[in-house]
Specification:
Layout lengths: L2 H4 L5 E15 L5 E12 L5 E9 L2 H6 L6 E17 L4 E18 L1
Antiparallel strand pairs: 1-2, 1-4, 2-3, 4-5
């Protein structure tokens, strides 16, 4: 779990991270989208570890930076909550938990 992120829920903060690799995922329409894996995501203020990794969809802003493996970046994002795990409403099984994520990333800079 990302406990450090949970302490900052609903706040917009500045983060730094290093690029690990690119990947792909299928969107809701079945089309392939490019993704990026960021490792060692840290709070800019205090330099504490926010999370060990995070995946983002690659949009125009990230694409324009021409990022490569091990590049360092800075960005802003809002800390949000999401539910993960297994839920079966018919069988009355609820093995879900809440975790934290980064929403609406903006202002990407290569540092």
């Amino acid at each position: 779990m990302r406990k450090e992120l949970g302490k900052h829920q609903d706040k917009r903060l500045v983060f730094t991270a290093s690029v690990d690799r690119y990947g792909t995922k299928r969107n809701w329409h079945g089309f392939t989208e490019k993704t990026i894996l960021l490792k060692d995501v840290r709070f800019k203020e205090g330099n504490g570890l926010a999370t060990d990794h995070i995946w983002f969809t690659v949009g125009k802003t990230i694409e324009a930076l021409g990022l490569k493996e091990k590049d360092k970046i800075q960005f802003e994002a809002r800390v949000g909550e999401y539910e993960k795990g297994y839920i079966n409403f018919r069988g009355l099984i609820d093995e879900s938990i809440f975790d934290y994520k980064l929403n609406r990333p903006t202002k990407f800079l290569k540092i």
